[in-house]
Amino acid sequence: MSRLPPGHKPGELDDRILTALHEAHCDAVRRFVRTYVSDPGRAEDVVQETFLRAWQHVDRIDVTDGNPRSFLFTIARNVIVDQWRAQSRRAELVHDATIVDDIPT
Fold it and tell me: pLDDT tier at 1 (50, 70, 90 boundaries)?
């Protein structure tokens, strides 16, 4: 896999790569995420987190061969799974109006 030059320094090149990725693939990533996340706000959070992680790991993107869209889809899928796992660990508040109404005051 041909990646960025070894020892490259983060900076302007990374920003230009991420800007190009965002312009070329943001709509596709957004559509991909919306197939799994129904809440529009949460879906947008996943898209933003996807591009943040892509920026953090821009050195893993193959700039000469390969398809960066599949890299972005993999990141998005991982973000969705991470959020699902975090949500499943939290205790869920249950509200049952009949039980609450029956409690003596």
Answer: very low
